[in-house]
Amino acid sequence: MTIRKNNAAEAMTEGVITVASRVDLLFETSWEVCNKVGGIYAVLSTKARTLGAQFGDKLIFIGPDLWTSENESLYFKERKTLLRQASGKLHLPWGISIRVGRWDIPGSPQVVLVNPGDTVKHLDGIYGEMWRDYGVDSLHSYGDYAESCAFAVASAIVIEALTDHLKASQSKVIAHFDEWTTGMGLLYLRNHAPKISTVFTTHATSIGRSICGNGKPLYDYFHQYNGDQMAEQLNMQSKHSLEKAAAHNADCFTTVSEVTARECEQLLQIRPQVVTPNGFEPEFVPKTVKYNRLRKEGRDRLLEVAAAVTGRKYDADTFIIATSGRHEYRNKGLNMFIDAMARIEAGLPSNEEALAFIMVPGWVREPQGALVTDLKYGGDLRPEPDFLTHSLNNEGDDEICRRIKELEAGGHFRRLKVIYVPSYLDGADGVIDISYYDLLPAFDLTVFPSYYEPWGYTPLESVAFGVPTITDDKAGFGQWVLDNFKNGLNLCGVDVKSRNDSNYDQACREIADDATDYISEDNNLRLQARNMAFLTSAKADWKFFILNYDKAFEIALRRNMRR
Predict the structure, then answer these.
(1) How far apart are CA 403 and CA 511, in angstroms?
(2) How far out from the chain centre does Cα 530 lie?
(3) Which of 563, 524, 547, 558 is nearest to 53 (CA)?
(4) Distance between CA atoms of 310 and 325, rounded to whole angstroms?
(5) Rounded to 5°, angle at Cα 51 from 166 and 43
(6) pTM of the predicted protein model
(7) Given this model, what pLDDT does residue 10 score?
């Protein structure tokens, strides 16, 4: 594929000619289609419009049908007439059923939600087939393994049936599978519809995440780790062997960053053919007038909540820092964020105050009753200062709570108050009641010092909304910034720190020092940093990064043809 690299628009047009015009159908299967539970939802939902501009209604997303009429997905709009009325005409085995519609996101792509029916009852035979043909060890499976495999296999059956129903040529169909949770679907297609080209993307290796989640040092001993050996040690044989088999048997294997590509090479023993960085859809970012309104409304609400939580009022220009993401205390760097906030407090001028919000879903029981009353009726400030907006079922075991209490007991967090929001910010959490994207403009700075972060959507989202961010080189996004920009808040809106297994205190100190310096800067310099953040995010527009997917699809078609 010849691309004139000095013109992204021309490059994308040539990608369309070489790939989209040769494809009858492009399927992408993920557990997070219309199911907002993690970072992969952000990947798929933000790239849909750009991918759809190339493939039109040849593009079909496939996700799990987890919903009922009383609890329907907020993002799925059923349209029974789509795909030649496939929902009523496909004859599927094992009680598998589908619903077709549109995903309510920019681009409104077609979606098929799959209910696996009784597929789980047939898994023993499929497990035997996968062991015989690919060495997938399902014997040691537990947890969500069976549910994921049932969905993946049912999705593969639906892909084959839809290909036939829509009279597409299998040799002109690409099936893209995301994460180990859909890997068995890829292998099932390889056996039962081998003319369909397959792409497999791992967004994080299951064994790499497990090594980090179990507190083991990933980086100091990186080149000594053997993925199969560690899977046995950590009881991860089933997920790891499935992911490894999918990676080795896909027509094209991809991952989201150079950081994770090296991890795949070491732990899965295969180098991805293509790195497909995660871009962002600019349509998600509000225009200037709405943006300024959201910033004011968000700040007003956060300051109101902070006053009710802590028992004291805050000035309108109080500096507000935030972190967010999945509840992985060490992997997401939540420990480092909290410890860095304690250091920031020590460096604040004597007349300064600041707020730090941790917006990480926990095991929520309900919004704090007294807090809700204060916010709703404007009553007296709470008599007992606290840091939680919602009560938890496991407050005593929650690592975030424990660390905040330890530091408070040691005299910290008097002038910089840390507030923990352990709820999904979907606009109806009962306390803040503003969705995450609508709240983002309210922050002055975000900090994401992840220990394990294959890409890092949270810092990318932050700069896309004009909020400068501090992250690190263990995040794929952080490494991308280092490879493409001059590092620094005032230079590109991003400050990338070095992290390893031996420099925890140093990284904490550097984060705190740079954040404290930024707090002390005047409004003009802060505005410059916000503008540079916008400019940096523009380089991560999907219109640029989608070219990597075109390359992956091209490789998959060529390799399948050779097969």
Answers:
(1) 18
(2) 23
(3) 547
(4) 23
(5) 115
(6) 0.91
(7) 44
Between 123-134 and 145-165, two packed helices, what is the crossing angle to 10 degrees?
90
Helix (H) or strand (E) holding 497: strand 494-497
Cα dihedral across residues 144, 140, 270, 154: positive or negative:
negative
Helices (H), 378-503: 399-409, 436-439, 457-464, 476-484, 489-492
Q: What are the angstrom distances between the C-alpha of 77 and each of 49, 105, 405?
A: 16, 10, 45
Sort strands 76-78 and 97-103 into parallel, antiparallel or unpaired: antiparallel
How confident is the model at residue 37, as a pLDDT? Answer: 84
Residue 94 zone, left/alpha/beta (φ > 0; ψ -120 to 50; rest): left
515: its two tokens: 């954040």
Termini Cα distance of the chain: 20
What's the pLDDT score for residue 5?
38
Q: Which residues on neighbouring strands pair with residue 252, listed in sequence order?
A: 199
What is the torsional sign of CA 120, 268, 262, 334? positive
Give the CA-trace dihedral at 213, 479, 47, 186, to 10 degrees. -50
Amino acid at 77: K
Residue 242, pLDDT > 90, answer: yes
Identify the pLDDT of residue 16. Answer: 46
Phi then psi for 254, rounded to 5 degrees?
Answer: -130, 160
Sheet with 469-472, edge to edge strand ranges? 416-421, 354-359, 319-324, 445-447, 469-472, 494-497
Say which residue the tokens 């890409």 belong to.
455
- Tokens found for residue 62: 């496939």
Kindly state the percentage of the chain with pLDDT values over 70: 96
Per-residue pLDDT for 374 more than 90? Answer: no
Q: From CA 373, how far away is CA 365, in angstroms rounded? A: 17
